[in-house]
Amino acid sequence: MAESQSSGAQTHSQKRHPRPLSPHLQVYKPQLTSATSIFHRFSGIGLAVGVLYLVCWLIAAAQGADSFDRLQDFNGSLIGRLLLFGWSAAFFYHLLNGIRHLAWDAGFGFELPTAYKSGYAVIIGTVIFTIAAWVIGYFQMGAF
């Protein structure tokens, strides 16, 4: 009797069509709000890596002038400058988007047009603050 039930009746999972468990990139088009959320996570990860690099820099400084000079030489290389530029951009993005999230936590800016305006403001502000920080830094070094 158990055999006749199992051969004749299909389980619920056998009747379903193979599809994603939840809507994913195949269903939804990328939007500014989802992109800013993803970039916020990436910038947080980048900042965590940057803190580890800062610890290495402090250890090199504690080990003496030779270790510190080697790390400073790397910082001055093209790869080092690109990493530092990326970390500064991640810092400003995470800061500005964090302020945006604080406004959301307070109940402001949930309307879609406002969310898009604040998203664009975060991106534009990130570019402006990052470039301004680097220009000011090079100006203070006397490079300009």
TrEMBL record:
Cofactor needs: heme
Region (Disordered): 1-23
Keyword Heme: yes
Record field: compositional bias (Polar residues): 1-12
Entry's transmembrane regions: 38-61, 82-99, 119-139
Subunit: Part of an enzyme complex containing four subunits: a flavoprotein, an iron-sulfur protein, plus two membrane-anchoring proteins, SdhC and SdhD. The complex can form homotrimers.
Protein name: Succinate dehydrogenase cytochrome b556 subunit
Organism: Dongia rigui
Taxon lineage: Bacteria, Pseudomonadati, Pseudomonadota, Alphaproteobacteria, Rhodospirillales
Name of the encoding gene: sdhC
